[in-house]
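REVIEWER CHECKLIST
Item 1: Sequence provided? yes
Item 2: Single chain? yes
Item 3: Sequence as submitted:
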Amino acid sequence: MSKKKVINIQQLIQQHFWFRYLPETTYKTYLMIGHLHNQKIRGEEASKKLLTSNFNIEHEIGPLREEKENVLKKLGQKYPTNRLEDIQLLLTYKLIKVAKDENENLVYLYNIPVPKPEEVLNLDEEERTTLENIRFEFKHQNAFNALLTLILNSNGNLLTTLDHIHTTTKIKHADIREILDYLVKEGSIKVKADKNVKELRKSDKVYIAINKEVFEQKRFVIG
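Item 4: Structure as written out by the authors:
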């Protein structure tokens, strides 16, 4: 007898980077819907629990709240102020659907498979690029940290080779090229070399310098 595959919804939401588009209360509403379904709570009781839930906003405050509001506004949505608006946003995002159970009770169910944002949202080219950049940084998070630490430990000016960076940080040579090229395009660093960053060989000398103004805006403030 084959085992039933377990779907980790929270992991899928994270992998698809839905957190960029989900307000904190909307995500908690999403989890509540799953909880009610698992507990087999239906009908009026489920509606009451869902619509009267008060979720504390623990993380999305100040600049984070403002950024989320701007992202939603760009999508033609508004920041939700109650559970009904949270549910409507989840329906718009096609993360949930309305169905009927065996007793004809209306229920909210997760859409499986969980869609990716770019599959269901009307993202313009700028937002698609932003989403791809977020994915790139997430994928190479450890490599970013190691490389930036190396540059900062050299007071923001580093004369080196790809091989030296690889030996020091254990980052793959191909990833070093990709990350350097990304940071150059972002404006956080400047690179001087005899050839294009993506064409650098292991032994090619390269001078890396932090562009402080952009670096502090995109990365973090240098003390």
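Item 5: Key structural point noted by reviewer: The mean pLDDT is 92.
Item 6: Recommendation: ____
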